[in-house]
Predict the structure.
Amino acid sequence: MPKHTNQIFVLGATGFVGSEVVKEAGRQGLPVKALVRDPGRAGDLAATGAELIPGDATVPETWIRSVTGCRVLIDLVQPKLPRRLGLRGIRAIAARRLSVMTSLLQQMDRIPAGERPLLISVSGLDDLMPDAQGVVRANSPLRAKPAGFGHIGIPVRHVVEQSQTPRTFVYLGTVYGPGKSFETTIFPQIARGAFRLPGGGGNRMPLVHVEDAARALVHLATLPAVALDGRSFVVADGSNATFREFCNHSARLLGAKAPGAVPRWLASFILGSVLCETLTSDIGADPFSLTSSGFAFRYPSFVEGLPPTLARLGYALQESAQSTTPSADIPVRNRAESGV
């Protein structure tokens, strides 16, 4: 007989999205185990009621027993990225990420079937091939030729599909919020008028607030395994805003001038070809697979998500920008959702 508990096991628990997942699960009263390198430095996670499991994600044999019997394992391991990312760099990162996943799956496959958790493998939309309208959905095929961060995600998906472990695949849009590069680089540069949009920023960039990303993952983790195993989900707010719209509205809220632009070739030289490719790709996202499972976004677009984000970071917001939203900033490119 199956011996699953309701516990959620989180890899990458101290990361931008991972820490928010642990906190969201705690807010919902769900039991969580969080893998951390140093429990002494993860007091904020312990305060949520999570059980901290000391260990290194690259050495799963040392902590895999703690996974046995959990309901799901959410893999949010994020490789550290250099400021400039080209093909050579992404291939090295992809090789390390694939090695970590291969080791994890070998250990997971040794867990008795009745006690083996379902793996929620999290990646980005770069993995998926857009349709003729440039939109990706849950049933979109993988790109035949990797682009952007798809160099990492696509090989990982292939190796997961070859394992015995039950799994679901979750594809996140660009996650924004009070953390990561948005806190340390993008918002500060916008605030002082120094940010520049690669290629002009006219490309659609599927977005999701970090709170909604975490809420979506916790929501999926509580669904019956039969509703997850073998399926894919797209987690993006569906507004399909452009990067320019997002940055221009950020500037208005901060009382700063709208960001300028740099040619794509120059952005590629500064940021590296892979990072530039991701930031300038024109992709729309259809989150129907997620919303049809009963999930509702707290922040349906950046218009709702930016004010609390910037306020949490300590910025004084312009009241006029909050009360009056120019029509150009209201995303209206939602496409008709269709069941997939």
Notes: The chain has twelve helices and 13 strands.
